[in-house]
Amino acid sequence: MDGRHRALKPPGPVDGDGTGRFAVVIEPQGWVFEAVAGVSLVESARLAGIVLPTSCRNGTCRTCICQLTSGRVRHLIEWPGLSAEEKLDGAILPCVATPESNLRIEVPGALEALAHGPQGAGTV
């Protein structure tokens, strides 16, 4: 790989039909990107030209903590830095979370990475 970021095509209607690809909507911005099962949401967002807040990328610092308002994720590590109560309330750590369905997440600090070209974040 040449080290350059490759933006994913705008996802269009992704419905979790067994392809392992899911649509993720970021609120309040209304941006949508395609996430791949087994890949962290932070990484899938980055490939789509969206920067989610992150620091450690291993589920401990909590910089990326956000609210899952619909859908299902699986954390890639057994003990992410979330309490049982936070998990029940829908908190996730996108640096170590991968989609299991289409998602809607609240990430007020998300940014569009304009430096990655014209295929950045889509709008709903």
Description:
The longest helix has 7 residues, at 41-47. The protein is globular, with a radius of gyration of 14 Å. Residues 1-13 and 115-124 have low confidence and may be disordered. It has 124 residues and is mainly β. It has helices spanning 41-47, 84-88; strands at residues 21-27, 31-36, 50-51, 66-70, 73-75, 91-92, 97-99, 103-106, 111-112, 122-123. Strand 1 (21-27) and strand 2 form a beta hairpin. The chain is built from two helices and ten strands, in the order ββαβββαβββββ.
Radius of gyration: 14 Å
% residues in beta strands: 25-35%
CATH class identity: Alpha Beta
Characterize the main sheet: 6 strands, mixed
User: What is the first-to-last residue Cα distance?
Assistant: 31 Å
Q: How many structural domains can be distinguished in the coordinates?
A: 1
Any idea of the CATH topology? Ubiquitin-like (UB roll)
- Number of H- or I-type helical stretches: 2
CATH superfamily: Beta-grasp domain
Class from helix and strand fractions: mainly beta
Give a brief rundown of this model.
This protein has helices at 41-47, 84-88, and strands at 21-27, 31-36, 50-51, 66-70, 73-75, 91-92, 97-99, 103-106, 111-112, 122-123. Helix content is 10%, strand content 29%.
What is the strand and helix layout of this fold?
Layout: E1 21-27, E2 31-36, H1 41-47, E3 50-51, E4 66-70, E5 73-75, H2 84-88, E6 91-92, E7 97-99, E8 103-106, E9 111-112, E10 122-123
Parallel strand pairs: 1-8
Antiparallel strand pairs: 1-2, 2-10, 3-9, 4-6, 4-8, 5-7
